[in-house]
Description:
Helix content: 10-25%
Shape: globular
Oligomer: single chain
Low-confidence stretches: 177-204
Strand order of the largest sheet: 3-2-1-4-5
CATH architecture: 3-Layer(aba) Sandwich
Amino acid sequence: MKVIIAGGSGLLGSALVAALSDSHHEVVVLTRRSGTAGAAGMPPLAAGVRNVQWTPDGEAAAWTSALEGADAVVNLAGESIGAGRWSATRKRQIVDSRVLATRSLVKAIAASSTPPPVFISGSAVGYYGPCGDEVVTEESPAGADFLAQVCATWEAEARRLACRGPGPYEAGRHERSNSRRARLPLPTWRKPARESLRPQATPP
Length: 204
């Protein structure tokens, strides 16, 4: 399989890239970095992995040709929420890095002559906001705090692909854990059980 990954250098993305490479899939990592793998500041790439430079600014550009013939696009792009104080500038970066990257991917997929049949876009349990001991499900509404609104806006951007008329895409069932999970036929990509998010009691 050919899999495109945006956000392939993050915690989840790097693990997914490694798992796909180990399973002998072709992996294309969309990266904002310029330069050749192995050069200064650029880590060497595993077998079957290549980088394609992109600019996730909400538009589709020359990098979209990398999507041709892909079997899946996985969107894990986004600035870390724990990398610094949440100033107004930092909060804007957290939002834009997710929303604009997703918008770029949606436009690129929609414009592709052979669009990938699978698009998986990230989200997080922060969608629900602070819940305490309240049980929440996939049908529960978004919270009202900053991270909840980030997730809601992020997901809405991804759903635009399902609203573009006839095509292979439709809004799928939400699976929120550390990121949104979806069925992908890979031996190392397991979908977790769908459970209520009630904190577990600590054994005595």
